[in-house]
Amino acid sequence: MNRTPLFRKRLVRTVIIMLFLISILPSVGSLSREYNTKDMLLQQNKVLYNNDTTPPVTTISFIPPEPTSPNGWYMYASFVLNATDDSSGVYTTRYRIGAGPWKYYLLQVNIVASDKDLVIEYFSIDAAGNIEPVKNATINIDLLPPLINLNCTWEKIGDNRYVIIVVADCYDGLSGMQKVEFYLNGDLNGTVTGPGPEYVWTCDYEPGVTTWIKAVAYDNVGWTAEYTIIFPYSTQSRSSQKVIYLLPFQQCNNFFYNLITRGEIWINAH
User: Is 111 exposed, middle or buried (0-12, 13-18, 19+ CB in 10 A)?
Assistant: First the structure.
């Protein structure tokens, strides 16, 4: 039996496969070189700068340089890292915020995390491969508004005299609460200061008149949250009347938090 044609087919197939492998080897090598360029460069620099045994020095600067509130808290902040190395030069600088991943530092970094004593770690490596010990800095930053909830009752204190008793429950777990402003029909009518969480305010109420009450809560860095109540009822004896709670909104960095769903309570007049 003549096996020559079969042998030739196998030979041709083998040659084609070899030519294909040879054609793609440069691409594979190029890709490998691309991924390993930095590591190879660092290894070469270690040989070139073998007399450099001193790591680089990195410093951090916050922007703004001082807290935005008197109690040591920032309302917003960013930071800049500056690394120097007088011998082989700085190869790379890395940082991480809190428990986040390590990142390469390129430009000014905006801090988007809120915390008390938020830790920022950083270090640099020079071209000789010397690694700087990790440094750290802490910052108190509050990017969030306070929480607010409003409740009210009213009492008859004389002939045709009534008062509304408003209780604002406010909380801020970061910079803390500063004050609550109370508005009556759009005008500022009273301010209660202190750490909270309860702020009590009263005002006269005229029966039969729709009354708008708004409370604005301030935390210690200046973020605010507000809650509005409308009294659309009269004070007829023993009648059940409705107090309407408008949806509260809290403002922070040009967007709004819708924190509490619409609620209603019923109050019995006496």
Answer: buried
